[in-house]
């Protein structure tokens, strides 16, 4: 598990390899990740959008950005957490992801970024 705290918001990430299959005549590797966002601050906050940089071992980079996470914009009171599961497809058995969440603090009305720590994606069969 990878963890990081930014501005009182703790991000924890766990990954899993979901399998491989052919897509458009190419081998594709599926990975899942579970993220827990925990509000360790004294203020209520809301996640408004996300930004991801996804890299595979072939040096391909994909940028993903958009509103909320899996169709939600969770509001977290102090001490609350939100967990969600998502995934991505890579063209290689290794890769990594990193990014950030855009959030708003309801007490100060200030917008801020919460870093998502870099985490590795790896198919167990490819490990030496």
From TrEMBL:
This is Co2+/Mg2+ efflux protein ApaG. Residues 3-128 form the ApaG domain. SUPFAM superfamilies: ApaG-like.
